[in-house]
Design goal:
- This protein is of the alpha+beta class.
- The protein folds into 2 domains: 2-218, Endonuclease III, domain 1, CATH 1.10.340.30; 236-343, Nucleoside Triphosphate Pyrophosphohydrolase, CATH 3.90.79.10.
- It has 15 helices and 8 strands.
- Strand 1 and strand 2 form a beta hairpin.
């Protein structure tokens, strides 16, 4: 097994130098802030989607201090559309903690980084490797897929026993006597191989530097590995979006910080206090086409209802009246953005 373990690094390091990715925007500055931001954005999100968000985000918040000083509304607005908004809230919390508790300097050890909000073991290891030259192993989704195929692991990676096995393999697969630079190359090679060659569907096995010793390739089991999550019926929930329009402005309500779309601006899901907002209906409501939105653990059926009203523009801080164009500039979830673009932008 030891020869097979060492084979991974021996093959991937030269492969990455000739065939890996070298032009990703966060590779232009391997400081802790850029690595941290890119790693968090890449959690459950494809590289092609992340690149423009990373570029906009780092342009607006170029360093940890600017992010810490920003309002959470500005951070969420810059993140809007990328999904999994708890990641953005954790970025903001972590930035403020680093400024307050670490005097603006990232801790360098994986163990210390792992204590910060939103930074798991693999993300912490990536920061430690790329920014500080530490010897640590990553185990993101790409690496799990590579290891499942290469070692023939026929168990679901979400199980704790399987994760324990994979973490051991990840640590043992590190270059034996690698320099900090070599560890960076190896770590990037794992990311690149999983993102460009050992992909989930239709992997390019003929281009893989590990194929001659890959169990899945040798046994013709590439399509079966990694083992998928056991399927269960995806529950579906329903809600009604109350879309109030007054003088071509739409009413948006700020959601609670916790829960789905926490801290984002959304159409009210229940009729707000009519007396408090002083809404007077101008006509009967109009049902707009239904919209479906999928989350990780359930599907949401949205029934939008448009109501033209006469209203007092002075509302509490929990509500705002915005033109459709201005509403798109706020931190809004994807379904709200779709509804505005489909029905209120000409």
């Amino acid at each position: 097994m030891s020869k097979k373990i060492h084979y991974i690094a021996d093959q991937l390091i030269p492969w990455q130098k000739t065939s890996g990715r070298h032009d990703l925007p966060w590779q232009q500055r391997y400081d802790a802030y850029a690595v941290w931001l890119s790693e968090v954005m890449l959690q459950q999100t494809q590289v092609g989607t992340v690149i423009p968000y990373f570029q906009r985000f780092i342009s607006k918040f170029p360093d940890i201090e600017s992010l810490a000083q920003a309002s959470i509304d500005d951070v969420l607005a810059c993140w809007s559309g990328l999904g999994y908004y708890s990641r953005a809230r954790n970025l903001h919390r972590t930035a403020r903690m680093i400024m307050q508790d670490f005097h603006g300097v990232f801790p360098q050890s994986r163990e210390a980084l792992q204590q910060l909000p939103g930074i798991g073991r693999s993300t912490a290891a990536a920061i430690a490797v790329f920014a500080f030259g530490q010897r640590d192993a990553i185990l993101d989704g790409n690496v799990k897929r590579i290891f499942a195929r290469f070692f023939g692991i026929d168990r679901y990676s979400g199980q704790s026993k399987t994760l324990t096995i994979m973490w051991r393999l990840a640590e043992e697969s590190l270059p034996q006597h690698g320099s900090p630079e070599e560890l960076k190359v190896y770590t990037q090679a794992l990311m690149d191989l999983g993102a460009t060659v050992c992909v989930r569907n239709r992997p390019l096995c003929s281009q893989c530097p590990l194929r001659t010793r890959c169990v899945a390739y040798i046994q013709d089991r590439v399509a079966q590995l990694p083992v998928s999550r056991p399927r269960s019926q995806m529950p579906e929930k329903e809600t009604v979006f109350m879309i109030y329009r007054h003088e071509n402005k739409l009413l948006l309500e700020k959601r609670p910080d916790n829960g789905i779309w926490g801290g984002l601006w959304c159409f009210p899901e229940d009729e707000p206090n009519q007396n408090k907002l002083k809404l007077k209906k101008k006509s009967s409501s109009l049902a707009l086409p239904q919209l479906r939105h999928s989350f990780t653990h359930f599907k949401l059926l949205i029934r939008p209802s448009l109501q033209d009203v006469i209203a007092n523009n002075e509302v509490s801080a929990a509500f705002v009246w915005k033109s459709p164009e201005d509403a798109l500039m706020l931190a809004i979830p994807v379904p709200v953005k779709k509804l505005i673009q489909q029905h209120f932008i000409s």
